[in-house]
Automatic annotation (TrEMBL):
It catalyses: L-glutamate 5-semialdehyde + NAD(+) + H2O = L-glutamate + NADH + 2 H(+). Pfam families: Aldedh. Keywords: NAD, Oxidoreductase. It is an enzyme of class 1 (oxidoreductase). This is L-glutamate gamma-semialdehyde dehydrogenase. Its EC number is 1.2.1.88. Pathway: Amino-acid degradation; L-proline degradation into L-glutamate; L-glutamate from L-proline: step 2/2. It comes from Lysobacter yangpyeongensis. The keyword NAD applies. Belongs to the aldehyde dehydrogenase family.
Length: 522
């Protein structure tokens, strides 16, 4: 791939990218209806039950049959990972890193096939899907480089100051064991592959469970690691319901740690479970966002409108980083609304397989029904819908889960200001004083991402006062979205994250390790 794809550069791709994507899409469509088994202890595993997966693009299309893992499958995967741990931990850092890079290289070769599967099972457009696949490639290379550059976090320390005795000291970071990764539906490849790569390169073995809506991408990840030559049992793939497989993983006595991305209630429950038992175990939880953007009277409104629309409506607002709360200075509110309406009117909605469609469907029937309920709640609460509000039911759209982007102006007492909707709905309110805008922006239990548009001398004020782990100022590529490994660390404050450390940051890999102090007297 000669074009360097990131979420910030996806707006003007070369024609050959579309040609290759469409070829990969045709290749996958020829496989519709096949079965895709679990991958446990280095081999395919037949589950006790199978589930049919249809695409939200057109629910008449069956993508395939995927396994519904039960407690026995979970136990087999955990035992395989536990058994593989001693040899994997003992493998030299350079060899583990080399396997990660090989896996990244294989992903790069398959990036179009992976992206096509993401479009089919999630409903994201091709550029979003290609961005996610490429991001995962970069995770594997980034974490391999990072761990080697830190020499495996093995540091010599000064000898004890004892006359006549040589007492040598070291600080060594050691892996935990069989690590569980539970991924969400919205970035099922990147938010699986990222923590999987981090856990593996640091010497842990992995049991990974995909989201119920997105088992295909999980199976493709398993095939990459299998073909890269990872030793038997070091990586195991499960799919199935969170209530069964997810809870069994959290309860399993061999679970040494968990990385979870998903809802606040599930994340908090996992944190409590991992803190209980005979001793606390680590839990890295990223739990969503209710992300604000402030627009001052000094903002470049064209830049703001582009960034707001991309962030609020990209992938149907189904990103934990999506913009959902917009605070605009009253002097420029009408002008910004006019520009936002134009941005929304220009969005092409439809079959995400087609190049001309920027916005595909929402992921499932529950999200589709939630959209109608939130629109009703907005109207009942006195909000003014400036754009959108309809489920699309005509023609081909009737077979999928298509909805219009919503821009709604609402009073601050509306309850949806506090609720993460995970849909293409952004609420707007006008302000007079930027201090009150900041108070409103921070008036949430979450703190994942935040955006700002204003004068350059206002940016430090925004950065110093906003309560969020990821901030963007004057960014047309996305007001609150678009982090990329090596460029923007990604992690939340407050209820959005459990550790205060960000994905692909200087501090991420250490979370998969525990420190051991070693003193040897010669």
């Amino acid at each position: 791939m000669t074009f360097r794809l990131t979420y910030a550069t996806m707006f003007n791709p070369p024609p050959e990218m579309h040609t290759q994507f469409e070829a990969a899409l045709a290749k996958l469509e020829a496989t519709f209806g096949q079965r895709h088994p679990l991958f446990v202890d280095g081999a395919d595993r037949e589950p006790a039950a199978w589930g049919e997966k249809r695409t939200p693009i057109d629910t008449d299309l069956v993508l395939g049959e995927f396994p519904l893992a039960d407690a026995q499958d979970v136990d087999a995967a955990m035992r395989a990972a536990h058994a593989a741990f001693p040899a994997w931990r003992a493998m030299p850092v350079a060899e583990r890193a080399a396997l990660l890079r090989k896996a990244g290289d294989l992903m790069q070769q398959r990036v179009y096939e992976i992206a096509a599967a993401l479009t089919l099972e999630v409903g994201k457009n091709r550029m979003e899907a290609l961005g996610e696949a490429q991001e995962t490639v970069d995770f594997f290379h980034h974490y391999a480089d990072d761990f080697e550059q830190h020499h495996g976090f093995d540091h010599p320390l000064p000898n004890d100051p004892i006359d006549g005795v040589v007492s040598r000291n070291r600080s060594v970071m050691r892996p935990y064991g069989a690590w569980v990764v539970i991924a969400p539906f919205n970035f099922p490849f990147a938010l699986a592959g990222g923590p999987v790569a981090a856990a593996l390169v640091t010497g842990n073995t992995v049991v990974f469970k995909s989201a119920t809506d997105t088992p295909w991408s999980g199976r493709l990840l398993a095939e990459v690691l299998r073909d890269a030559g990872f030793p038997r049992g070091t990586f195991n793939y499960l799919s199935g319901a969170g209530r069964e497989a997810g809870e069994a993983l959290a309860r399993h006595p061999l679970t040494a740690g968990i990385t979870f991305t998903g809802s606040v209630p599930v994340g908090r429950n996992l944190l409590q479970q991992m803190a209980g038992g005979a001793y606390p175990r680590p839990c890295i939880a990223e739990m969503g966002g209710k992300n604000p953007c402030i627009v001052t009277e000094h903002a470049d409104l064209d830049r703001a409108a582009a960034g707001i629309a991309r962030s609020a409506f990209g992938m149907g607002g189904q990103k934990c980083s999506a913009l959902s709360r917009l605070y605009v200075h009253e002097a420029v509110a009408d002008a910004l609304i006019e520009k936002l309406n134009a941005q929304i009117d220009a969005i092409n909605i439809g079959d995400a397989r087609r190049r001309e469609h920027w916005l595909g469907p929402v992921v499932n029937a529950a999200a589709y029904d939630n959209y109608a309920r939130y629109v009703t709640n907005l109207n009942a609460g006195g909000a003014k819908l400036l754009r959108g509000g309809k489920q699309l039911r005509e023609g081909d759209a009737a077979r999928g889960y298509y909805v219009e982007p919503v821009l709604a102006e609402a009073d601050l007492d509306h309850p949806l200001w506090k609720h993460e909707m995970f849909l293409p709905i952004v609420m707007l309110h006008r302000y007079r004083d930027r201090g009150e805008a900041m108070r409103w922006a921070n008036d949430t239990d979450m703190g994942l991402t935040a955006g700002f548009y204003g004068a350059p001398d206002e940016v430090p004020w925004f950065q110093d006062h906003i309560e969020a782990g990821v901030t963007y100022a004057n960014r047309p590529q996305g007001a609150t979205t678009g982090a990329w490994p090596g460029y923007q660390p990604f992690g939340g404050w407050k209820g959005s994250g459990s550790t205060g450390k960000a994905i692909a940051s200087f501090y991420y890999l250490q979370q998969y390790l525990r420190e051991q102090s070693r003193t040897v007297v010669e």
